[in-house]
């Protein structure tokens, strides 16, 4: 598995702060060296910030969650 694939595997957990010390260091080290993965990280971080700041009056419907999940593109 290449380093970018590994970083993709760790990215969501990294953003959620759910990695152990070794995995966190591995992800941080790769993000310092790889501009492509760093841009993905920044995008995901900004997207999460935008979603948190959005005003939602009702819970997201399960169908919408599935549609959004289907839009994710694997690297």
Key traits:
elongated; mainly alpha; 75 residues
Describe this structure in words.
The protein has 75 residues and is mainly alpha-helical. The protein has one domain. The chain is built from four helices and no strands. It has helices at 3-15, 21-33, 35-53, 62-71. Helix 1 packs parallel to helix 3 (35-53). The model has no long low-confidence stretch (mean pLDDT 87).
Radius of gyration: 14 Å
Regions with pLDDT < 50 over 5+ consecutive residues? none
End-to-end C-alpha gap? 12 Å
H/E topology pattern: HHHH
Shape: elongated
Count of the separate structural domains? 1
The secondary structure category is mainly alpha
The proportion of residues forming helix, as a percent range, comes to over 70%
Total DSSP helices: 4
**Strand percentage, roughly?**
under 5%
Q: Would you tell me the overall average pLDDT? A: 87
β-strand number: 0
Q: Which sheet architecture does the biggest sheet show?
A: none
């Amino acid at each position: 598995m290449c380093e970018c694939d590994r970083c993709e595997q760790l990215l969501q957990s990294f953003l959620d702060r759910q990695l152990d010390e070794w995995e966190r260091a591995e992800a941080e080290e790769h993000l310092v060296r790889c501009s492509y993965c760093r841009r993905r990280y920044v995008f995901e971080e900004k997207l999460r910030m935008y979603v948190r700041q959005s005003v939602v009056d009702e819970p997201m419907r399960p169908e919408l969650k599935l549609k959004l999940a289907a839009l994710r593109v694997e690297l």
